[in-house]
Amino acid sequence: MKNLFIVFISACLLLACGNNQSDLDSNGEPKELVIALVSSGGDSKSPVSKALTDFKAYLEIKLKKKVKFYNTTDYTSVIEAIHSKKAHIAYLSPFSYVLAAQNKDIKPLVVVGQNQQPTMYYSVIFASRKSGITSMDQLKQQSKQLTLSFSDPASASGHLIPFEYLNSTGINPDSNFKQIVFGGSHISTVLSVTSNKVDIGCSTEPTFDVLLKRGTIKERDFTILWKSDPIVASPICIRNDLNSAFIEKMKQIYLNIHIDNPAVFKSYIGTFHKNPSELTYISIDDSLYNGIRKIANSVKDVALLKNF
Asked: CATH for 120-231, among 1.20.1260.10, 2.20.130.10, 3.40.50.2000, 3.40.190.10?
């Protein structure tokens, strides 16, 4: 795992060295707005793809300029897109935001909230039906015979939080399992476990909601072994080298979309949340993620990233 993080740091630092401003016009606004995000899977006809297409059309009308989504398979690629100035806005996980923010070139814009409070979600550790593991005690006793899949190296719920929890119980993820892999995404990790290709997985609770809603998995396919304390929701971030008026304009677009175009808002939010009619986007501050920073600095391998 240590080598994986060194590669991660090196790649991001290399891309961050660029200073290409050609993506901005003379006013410091994007010539074409590029939004980087991790693909949630599915084809162009999936609910998420349709929701993003509708949101793109909405943004183009509001901004009077072209908008493009830069879909990636992991948060590392989203961070790279921001640092190399290939994207202007990034949809990040809490941990990937903490990693990216160390370069001081982005700021959190908004987050999904309810009653002006950020929504929360949970990390889970779960087992395949075939493994026969039904409790954390069994996992600890049999870990040497089990394969474990984290989701994304830069994911809070799919890596950082369960890594820290396993450590706290005396299970060293680097040495106490038969094999450790990264699924690359939350969906891939859940599918690997529910199809019995991997014994144990670490992901986020909303991923199960999405896949169960689609009918992709069944509740009998897995057993939840552990659920974390609440984790603050994932931020939508923006490069802070953009024109300040444009940054404020983008913030207001997100803050008001549930009023200006509730159908577009509910279409996207409803693919990840059970109660979209009760949700809005709300403004957030960087300090909201200090808890994630504290956890990252407390885990031996992750602390390597503090100089990134």
From this structure: 3.40.190.10
Q: For the residues of 247-307, what is the DSSP string, one character each?
A: HHHHHHHHHHHHHH-HHHHHHHHTTT-S-GGG-EEEE--GGGGHHHHHHHHHSTTGGGGGG
Rounded CA separation 278/275 (Å):
6
209 vs 94, residue with greater confidence:
94
User: Distances from the Cα of 187 to the Cαs of 50, 117, 120, 202, 299, in angstroms?
Assistant: 18, 27, 19, 11, 25
Residue with tokens 């396993």: 166
Q: What is the pTM of this model?
A: 0.84
| Predicted pLDDT at 284 | 95
Are 217 and 209 spatial neighbours (Cβ–Cβ below 8 Å)?
Answer: no
Provide the β-strand partners of residue 33.
Answer: 67
